UniProtKB/TrEMBL annotation:
Positions of the Glycosyltransferase subfamily 4-like N-terminal domain: 13-165
PANTHER family assigned to the protein according to its UniProt record, in alphabetical order: SULFOQUINOVOSYL TRANSFERASE SQD2, TRANSFERASE
Pfam families noted in UniProt: Glyco_transf_4, Glycos_transf_1
Lineage: superkingdom: Bacteria
Name this protein carries in UniProt: Glycosyltransferase family 1 protein
GO molecular function terms noted in the UniProt entry: glycosyltransferase activity
Species this chain originates from: Pontibacter flavimaris
Residues covered by the Glycosyl transferase family domain: 182-339
């Protein structure tokens, strides 16, 4: 089986890591993988480092027709059977190459729950007959896609997966990065979130929850781990709430496997999500989770079983759930044990197995 993956982005984020995991696992199943990536991108460097056959293209919109012609020839030369498009821009390039005569079926990954665009080309490409399956990262994403396109039967759920091996080195007993780096004394509870500081992650509700926990007398330090466009606005809101000494903005950290086990609680107040792999990472690190019931999170966090859920923009409920976990050791241990089992359904191996089954189904039909 010969599969070409289109990786359109310049930087390396969660979507690129998922493509890398998928290629790695598919190689174990004797699948030949090829990549079409952006010139000068992080994924191009990844392909070079790991010896993955690839073609580097321009993804500038005026040059997409030319890139589509180059991609068509690459598909033909290498006998590619399926083209897996991993983003909206990759989708556009894949459809253009198919229209130009590329003889390979199209598979689309959809990782966000946002509505599809309303312009005519968006409507066309999401309903394009050459797209044989749309792999949705969560059931909520699948439901949104089914409601948005003419043939909803194309849409199937294939959850993202994580690599459990990277979380095996650190545990609650030997993780000390946060306390050492930020000079935190013993006796403080550590609560944190790992996500971009942008609109949809709703750090304002996170800070409102922190305020209520502080009012309840909880002695804690809180970590906003990430960066983003709203960073200065969120920091200003923390100061307005009198939380400047309680909340630590770390910026982006690349040692999440060391940081998460040190947290007493993972708290996310996001408004919209596809799946949110940070929750799975917390599961793998045996860190209990309190989260909003946004997007695909309830597919991982079962309230009172694998974690605690609250409605979006509900700081009072979130604070109550946090205190329940922190003040009830038996509940905490039950959540951790159940989450440790739940995360086994969301590994990179499971993602690859389910994706490969879709590939085989499309090729057989």
């Amino acid at each position: 089986m010969r599969i070409l993956h289109i990786a359109s982005e310049k930087t390396w984020r969660g979507g690129e890591q998922q493509i890398a995991y998928l290629i790695e696992e598919l190689q174990q199943q004797q699948v030949y993988n090829y990549v079409a990536c952006r010139s000068g991108s992080a994924f191009e460097a990844y392909c070079k480092q790991h010896g993955i056959p690839h073609i580097s293209l321009s993804f500038a919109k005026p040059l997409l027709p030319l890139s589509a012609l180059r991609l068509k020839q690459y598909i033909k030369t290498n006998g590619v059977q399926l083209v897996h498009m991993h983003s909206s821009l990759a989708h556009t390039l894949g459809v253009l190459a198919h229209l130009a005569g590329a003889r390979a079926g199209l598979i689309l990954s959809r990782r966000v729950e946002f509505s599809i665009g309303t312009n005519p080309f968006s409507t066309f490409k999401y309903n394009y007959s050459g797209v044989k399956r749309i792999l949705c990262v969560a059931d909520n994403v699948r439901r949104a896609m089914v409601a948005s396109i003419a043939d909803g039967s194309k849409c199937v759920t294939v959850h993202s997966g994580i690599d459990l091996n990277i979380f095996s080195r650190y545990n609650r007993q030997n993780a000390s990065f946060l306390r050492i780096t930020y000079n935190i004394e013993e006796g403080y509870t550590l609560i944190g979130n790992v996500s971009a500081l942008d609109k949809h992650k709703d750090y304002f509700t996170f800070l409102d929850t922190v305020y209520l926990l502080k009012q309840n007398g909880l002695k804690a330090k809180y970590f906003a781990i990430g960066s983003g466009s709203l960073e200065q606005e969120i920091k200003a809101y923390a100061s307005k709430r009198g939380l400047q000494d309680d909340v630590i903005f770390t910026g982006f950290l690349n040692n999440v496997s060391e940081v998460l086990p040190e947290l007493d609680l993972f708290l996310t107040t996001t408004l919209k999500e596809g799946l949110m792999n940070s929750v799975l990472n917390a599961f793998a690190c045996r860190t209990p989770v309190v989260a909003t019931s946004a997007g695909g999170i309830p597919e991982m966090v079962i309230d009172g079983v694998t974690g605690m859920l609250a409605p979006i923009k509900s700081p009072e409920v979130l604070a109550h759930k946090c205190l329940q976990v922190l003040q009830n050791p038996r509940l905490r241990e039950q959540l951790i044990e159940n989450a440790s089992l739940k995360v086994l359904e969301f590994t990179k191996q499971q993602t690859a197995i389910k994706t490969l089954a879709v590939y085989k189904d499309v090729l057989s039909s």
